[in-house]
Amino acid sequence: MPKHHLFTSESVSEGHPDKVADRISDEILDAYLREGPRSRVAIETLVTTDRCVVAGEVRGPSVDLETLARKAIRDVGYASPGFAWDTVRFESHVHAQSSEIAQGVDADADGEEGAGDQGLMFGFACRETQELTPAPIHYAHRILERFAERRKAGDQDLGPDAKSQLTVEYVDGKPVRAHTVVVSHQHSPRLSNLALRDLAAKLAREVLPEGWFTSQTRLLVNPTGSFVHGGPAADTGLTGRKIIVDTYGGAAPHGGGAFSGKDPTKVDRSAAYAARYLAKNVVAAELADRCLIQLAYAIGVAEPLAVYVDTQGTGVVPDERIAAALQRSVSLTPRAIRERHGLARPIYARTSAYGHFGRAPDAEGGFSWERTDLADTLRRAA
Fold first, then answer.
1. pTM score
2. What Å distances lie between residue 187 and 18, 80, 159, 166, 233, CA to CA?
3. Where do the H-state alpha helices sit in 188-296?
């Protein structure tokens, strides 16, 4: 890394149109897994003015797609003309999963399952935060979460749609302060931009590490002047359009596959979670300060085609030794990933906003890939 540089990541709220689409897709996935853990689901959602369209392929029990979509829209907070949970026009174009896909994914005579698609997935971890995630995306998420908490606690001047952007200054590879904070937040006409700016400054100071928000920090709030009309009534949303927001904020490569609406046989999702789990445990095991992992799969083939490890010059042992230790310690077939992390459970709606990584594992099994229970094993193996 250069001795001094700036790096920027963005986050979007649960009310951002693309995130509304992600939430609906994941609510539907959860419903299928709740009724049948072996369900196969690939759901895409489009939301726009007064309309919600769901399409995709499924195999599993019957679920009420319209009720699920309306519930998701209501929970996010949309009840106003233009896009309201109880009046939006709903369309479903969901059909049965292709038999050709199913034959490559279903368990063979040995009980193994093939990957649900080809592709490459990346996992990443670093020491910039306690959660071992890059600082810009981590704190960009947390700023919007604080706004959402305030809105849900009863602040009627805040709307559901919002974006944040955080530029962090690095010195000798370490994050030291917030260079620029950008907040664009939907609001009521009665809330002035000055009041919103004061609120953004207050929440940013609460979220950022002590000393990061200084008199030199540039704060931009609703740079166009106002943001009254937002959500799908103002801008169309689609599932899977915020994959950089969902992962590492651009601090690590992305394989291109979106997560929301996909069951765990789809390695776009499950193997990306596995790669994050491995990278985080490498760093937690103190084998490196930064770790990038790539996995690659072919449809219908259980074992990954390749496992790549890059500790970006911070490893205490050679990268190839870490790669070998990972493969000795953990099976990376789709079935093994699903069983190790308990992925055949309704745990996905909670991932649809504020990032899939850097979140605390919960009692219901959500964010299980964030555990560091492999660290001791890796330390010994490497």
1. 0.95
2. 19, 13, 5, 21, 14
3. 193-207, 243-246, 267-284
